[in-house]
Design a protein that fits this description.
- The structure holds two protein chains of two kinds.
- Chain A is an alpha+beta fold.
- Chain A folds into two domains: about 100 residues, Immunoglobulin-like (Sandwich), CATH 2.60.40; about 160 residues, Roll (C8orf32 fold).
- Helices cover about 20% and strands about 35% of the residues of chain A.
- Chain A is built from eight helices and 14 strands.
- In chain A, a hairpin with a 4-residue loop joins strand 10 and strand 11.
- By secondary structure, chain B is α+β, with helices and mostly antiparallel strands.
- Helices cover about 30% and strands about 20% of the residues of chain B.
- In chain B, strands 15-7-6-22-23 form a five-stranded mixed sheet. A four-stranded parallel sheet of chain B has the order 9-8-13-14, with helices on one face.
- In chain B, strand 6 and strand 7 form a beta hairpin.
- The longest helix of chain B is centred in the N-terminal third of the chain and has 25 residues.
- Chain B starts with a helix and ends with a strand.
- Classes of the chains: A alpha+beta, B alpha+beta.
- The interface between A and B is medium-sized, with 18 and 22 residues.
């Protein structure tokens, strides 16, 4: 599938502000079955974009607006291809539990195994898991499939009940929330069972007829768990599906706070309003370059110059 | 070592200073601790004899007059610090003691070699844990300990640090055991403070005992500011000939603000707060009356967490938004580098001898105190059984906060701590109570023994250097072993002799 994604963010202030510094986690990844064809960010007021790769391998863009402004807009446009991957197995061998305990896995995935920030274990979570019978099962794959469904069934999808960075207990108490809450809850439970689990920030091409609950005009979040014999498997507890061709991955982290789509700091005594719009639309496959290019001057051997024969000459031409 | 027992109240008087009849030393008591002035037979150590003789000839009234002059000088200069956690406003004059502590040159030279070795190894360690992690892969230091440390900054992974010099200013706390050998108590690798007290103590001691100071030929330390400046300049040598340097302070409410202003003045660099700096297109600028000026080196006295609200604590108003971006891009030097706290974690401390062997293939020249890591179940139960004998410390804290001195704690305090320890064992280490050495201090109109430690300041860029001196911190309460200024300690001058 090819997608074209547009992600617009607008901050408005009720008084002039200055020296705004922003960072964006918005560039879709180019790895696994996903390929980034093009990406660009524009800002209003105009600013020079800088970029770096963070310690989780995510692309981060940042810029600053030193002057006085009252309105700041960013627009990210991406073209992405996502290829269907073989479906993960229904279950893995029971020995996977033991494999997860191996020193190398525990060392390499330290960050995705330990509580951090918004993924701290709580008594309310334990109570929830017990009440729903969501306990460590015979193998990690089927255990997580059950958890994925269990969270979907127990919680209502409701915006404005939680904040993006609410502790999990807020959603647990209300039994309502959005994708960040469900993902954090799933992460804490899975890590508690010793499964390396990470937060994924990205986009979803929503399909109502597939039973999706996610809002269509927003960013999305789900989780990925490392399962011996299956690799990193994406679980989307918001929609009770495994991540597949409709999930477009942007960034991975320990929790939401590691990879918020936009974060900024400004100076000035002002209140701010944030407006966000996201569209994910299926797109035509971009034409392959060979099809797109048209030869206007065919190669002809010129009589007055010998053909380049040695490796040296070829190299020189390339310089 | 039967250190456990030794910490009980030090009232056992094994000996009196020999010339105890001499006026100022009439109540001077020696116990099992090493004394900086007297041998165990009560006679003054050879290097301390001149000071001893001088004190015996001076009338008490004269000593009192000189002590008052010292204190007045501190008061007039505003040499203060802030004690957190007290009810009333808490800016205090740091108590200074009149009598210099004397360190023979040969002892100092050995100590200096050990400290240099230690800071070089710790810099290797920091580079490693933020890049390849070899020492973790080789199982020398447990990965959990490093990655689980609250001072380990993931944002520093893969960030290039000029000269690979992460720790540029280090204040290492040294104590003397009963046998007189020096041992490291802790490294301060983040934003060590106190060097201004070292310099201020020297000024007043020179005035109080000028003749003696000259006669001893005490090694000079007054050039510390210039040495620090040279260190900071060396860090920018790669990209700026005449770097613009500033000292970044959290502001006037910080406990060490006096020192920040003092050092900026000594070096002739700007003293700035976060709001005086801004980052534009990955470059740091300082606001001046003549417009903005590019900044190349920041000697920061703000903790990691507060230095950039975009990268770290979002609620911090002290820092500079975007500073981490400029730093990552290599456009500004920050000294000390960010994330150095992972190496002065008190649990990592116990691995420093192994760290030295691993990177330098040398034997450590300085000992460390035997340390029990409560994260290991056996060592935890050993600690719980010996709570009345041990000192228990939270691994990521400093300044004497969050610690239990077992022998001096009440039963209730110990039981409260026992619960904390059990609920979060990873966060604690335990050490036998060490008898800090004693030194003569002028208190209550006479000279009495008080426990002291030693904090030298090590500078590191292209090379590693120390000014031959240190802050000697004093536990002013009789018998107390806690020297931290935040816990009511004082300080005195340290004279390093030519030989």
């Amino acid at each position: 599938m090819f997608y074209s994604i547009r992600h617009v963010t607008r901050y408005r202030y009720d008084a002039p502000v200055r020296e705004c510094v922003m960072q964006l986690y918005m560039q879709p990844k180019s790895e696994g079955g996903q390929r980034l064809q093009s990406f660009q960010v524009t800002t209003q007021p105009r600013a020079t974009l800088q970029a770096y790769t963070d310690h989780f391998g995510n692309a981060v863009y940042h810029f600053d607006v030193p002057g006085v402004h009252q309105d700041l807009q960013t627009e990210a446009e991406a073209a992405v291809e996502v290829q269907a991957q073989p479906a993960p197995p229904e279950w893995v061998d029971a020995s996977a539990w033991q494999a997860l305990g191996a020193g190398e896995i525990r060392a390499e995935h330290f960050d995705m195994l330990h509580p951090h920030g918004l993924t701290l274990p709580t008594a309310a979570l334990d109570a929830f898991l017990n009440e729903r019978g969501l306990l460590k099962g015979e193998d990690p794959m089927s255990t997580l499939r059950r958890l994925n469904r269990g969270i979907f069934e127990a919680f209502a999808y409701a915006q404005d009940e939680t904040e993006v960075d609410s502790p999990i207990d807020v959603a647990l108490k209300k039994r309502k929330g959005v994708c960040q809450d469900f993902s954090h809850i799933m992460i804490v439970a899975a890590r508690g069972w010793g499964i390396p689990t990470r937060y994924v920030s990205g986009y979803l091409y929503t399909k109502r007829d597939a039973g999706d609950r996610s809002a269509a005009d927003a960013t999305h979040a789900w989780v990925e768990a490392l399962l011996p014999g299956a690799g990193w498997v994406g679980f989307d507890p918001t929609n009770n599906v495994l991540a597949g061709e409709r999930h477009i991955r942007v960034a991975i982290g320990r929790d939401y706070n590691d990879v918020p789509p936009a974060r900024g700091v400004f100076k000035g005594p002002a209140n701010s309003e944030l407006a966000v719009a996201v569209t994910v639309a299926p797109a035509q496959a971009p034409r392959r370059r060979d099809d797109f290019l048209r030869v206007v001057r065919p190669m002809v051997q010129r009589a007055d110059r010998p053909a380049p024969a040695t490796a040296d000459a070829q190299q020189q031409q390339q310089q | 070592m039967e250190l456990g027992k030794s910490a009980v109240r030090l009232t056992v008087v094994s000996n009196r200073a020999r010339p105890g009849q001499d006026a100022p030393f009439a109540t001077y008591e020696l116990d099992r601790a090493y004394d900086e002035m007297f041998q165990s037979d009560g006679g003054p150590r050879p290097h301390a004899k001149d000071l001893y003789d001088t004190l015996c000839t001076l009338p008490i009234a004269e000593l009192e007059r000189r002590q008052q002059t010292c204190e007045q000088s501190f008061l007039h200069q505003g040499i203060t610090f802030t004690v957190y956690g007290h009810e009333e406003a808490t800016e205090k004059i740091i108590p200074t003691d009149l009598l210099p502590r004397i360190v023979p040159g040969a002892e100092w030279d050995r100590l200096e070699r050990g400290l240099k070795q230690r800071i070089v190894a710790l810099n290797h360690f920091l580079k490693d844990v933020y890049n390849d992690g070899k020492i973790l892969n080789d199982g020398i230091v447990p990965r959990d300990l490093v990655f689980g440390s609250k001072h380990y900054l993931r944002q520093m992974r893969g960030v290039a640090v000029p000269l690979d010099a992460y720790v540029n200013v280090c204040g290492t706390d040294i104590i003397r055991r009963e046998d007189g050998s020096f041992v490291v108590l802790e490294d301060n690798l983040r934003v060590p403070s106190g060097v201004s007290y070292m310099l201020a103590n020297r000024e007043v001691a020179k005035r109080a005992f000028g003749d003696l100071y000259r006669a001893y030929g005490v090694r000079p330390i007054e050039h510390y500011g210039q040495e620090l400046l040279a260190t900071l300049k060396a860090l920018a040598a790669g990209f700026r000939d005449e770097p613009r340097i500033c000292l970044l302070t959290p502001g006037i409410f910080n406990s060490a603000y006096y020192e920040h202003a003092f050092l900026a003045r000594q070096m002739g660099v700007e003293l700035v707060e976060g709001r005086d700096l801004l980052v534009h297109d990955n470059v740091v600028y300082m606001r001046t009356t003549a417009g903005v000026k590019r900044v190349d080196v920041i000697y920061r006295r703000i903790d990691d967490d507060f230095i950039d609200p975009l990268a770290f604590r979002h609620d911090s108003a002290l820092g500079v938004p975007g500073l981490m971006n400029a730093y990552r891009a290599g456009n500004v030097v920050i000294a000390n580098a960010l994330g150095t706290g992972v190496a002065d974690d008190k649990a990592v401390y116990s691995y420093v001898p192994a760290i030295i062997r691993y990177y330098l293939s040398e034997e450590p020249l300085l000992d460390v105190v035997e340390t029990y890591r409560c994260r290991e179940p056996q060592q935890l139960s050993h600690t719980l059984e010996n709570l009345d004998k041990f000192v228990v410390k939270a691994v990521g804290e400093s300044g004497g906060y969050g610690m239990l001195v077992g022998p001096h704690a009440s039963l209730a305090e110990r039981e409260a701590f026992r619960a904390k320890l059990k609920s979060d064992p990873d966060n604690y280490i335990a050490q036998p109570t060490i008898q800090l050495s004693t030194a003569p201090c002028f208190v209550h109109g006479g000279v009495e023994a008080r426990h002291v430690d030693l904090r030298p300041y090590i500078l590191h860029a292209t090379d590693t250097r120390l000014v031959p001196g240190a802050l000697t911190r004093v536990a002013l309460k009789r018998g107390s072993l806690v020297v931290n200024s935040s816990q009511g300690g004082g300080s005195k001058d340290t004279w390093v002799l030519p030989t």
